[in-house]
Structure prediction request, 322 residues.
Amino acid sequence: MHPLDIGYLNSYRTLYSTKHLSYQHENEVRFFLFGEPRPVSLRAADLTTVILGSQSLKPFPEEKLETERRKSVTDLCKAFDRLNAGRNWQHRTTLQVADWSGFGLRVRGESTATLLQRHA
Amino acid sequence: MAESAVRDWYSWRPSLYKFRSLGPKATAILERPHLFFAPIKVMSDRTEVGADISIAEDKDAIRGHLEEYLAVLRESREFEHQLYMKQMLKREEDMLAPFRASRRFFRLREFDGKIEHANGLIGRLSGMSGKEAKELLTQFYESLRRGLREAAVCCLTKTPESPKMWDEYADGHRGVCFQFEDRIFKRDKTIQRVDVSYTTDG
Prediction:
């Protein structure tokens, strides 16, 4: 990388490192990439956990939305299984479901088989 | 038993989180793990990414902005100087080393020019009113932005425990949150990490 480009990125650091206090809940980390917008690949091991939202398994009353939700959950679970296929259990990505029923966020581990059987 | 112990340990490691609605984009992250870097210029909320900085008419705060920029320049110059010296030391074994080093020398001069300019701006502040100082800093940032080349940004959060984040970015708790290792992109020198700080004038 050209050292002047590091300088440019440092300028970004100066320009984009503060935000108003009202956004504090975001606790944000920004990554700046020099060059064209694009997806950047990661290792499967970098993705440690997938947390499904607490309402993601709750059916919609409207049929169309419910069909879409079921499809999304099914596709996600299948992709999750493919991601973990052949990986040693210590290095697998885990699947959890968020639960806000107590004080703050709790998560419970789930298997895709259970999710597909009960909710999708 | 062992599996849950390892998972508990994992959950205590520093991590970064990305919220998404359920759908093809979320599934694609599992199909082929990746994060998308979006263009800064087309982001829907310009203020959200800090592109419009509100600057108070406070000379000390403005001096702080400029001194921070100066510190970044000095840090970059120091890095460049180290590379320059490293190449110059190779001149006995590599005939072209001084030629290569000369290019770094010109970059050093460029940094010196910028440092001199920033010092000049800081010097001019003392004779200015708060309003004039604000105008000076606004123009300075504008000139910096014009000089910046295209960059893209990817925003993550350090915690999954904010209900507001689930509301805003994960389709009102109907979406999903991906947990990534804190050290992602650590080895990629083309990507720079910025931990956002929060202020009343950010």
